[in-house]
Amino acid sequence: MEDDREQIMRWLDALYRDGRVATQLDAIGLAQVFDLPADVMDIVLGIPSGRYTRQRLCDQLNSAIVGRGLSRRYGTHD
């Protein structure tokens, strides 16, 4: 069975498979398709609207994951 970190990485890979930039709505829609864990979905839903490179989106995710004390479970991403 896939762990949560792998699931997040697959989501990120799919989000940026066809381009260098993704919108907040792209991230939310695909997160729903990937059925990310509830804690991660809350983080994704809290991403400010806008367009994100992978690095910028990962910075947002990592900041929220660490800020919520979830880094042991979900790791950090790039």
Radius of gyration: 11 Å
The topology string of helices and strands comes to: HEHHEHH
Residue fraction in strands: 5-15%
Spatial shape: globular
| Number of distinct helices | 5
Largest sheet: 2 strands, antiparallel
Q: Helical proportion? A: 55-70%
Strand element count:
2
Low-confidence stretches: none
Query: Strand arrangement, largest sheet?
Result: 1-2
**Span of the ends, CA to CA:** 22 Å
Helix vs. strand class: mainly alpha
Integer average pLDDT: 95
What would you note in describing this structure?
The protein is mainly alpha-helical and 78 residues long. Helices cover 62% and strands 8% of the residues. Strands 1-2 form a two-stranded antiparallel ribbon. The chain starts with a helix and ends with a helix.
Quick summary:
The chain is mainly α.
Could you give the topology of this structure?
Blueprint: H1 4-15, E1 21-23, H2 24-33, H3 38-45, E2 51-53, H4 54-67, H5 71-74
Antiparallel strand pairs: 1-2
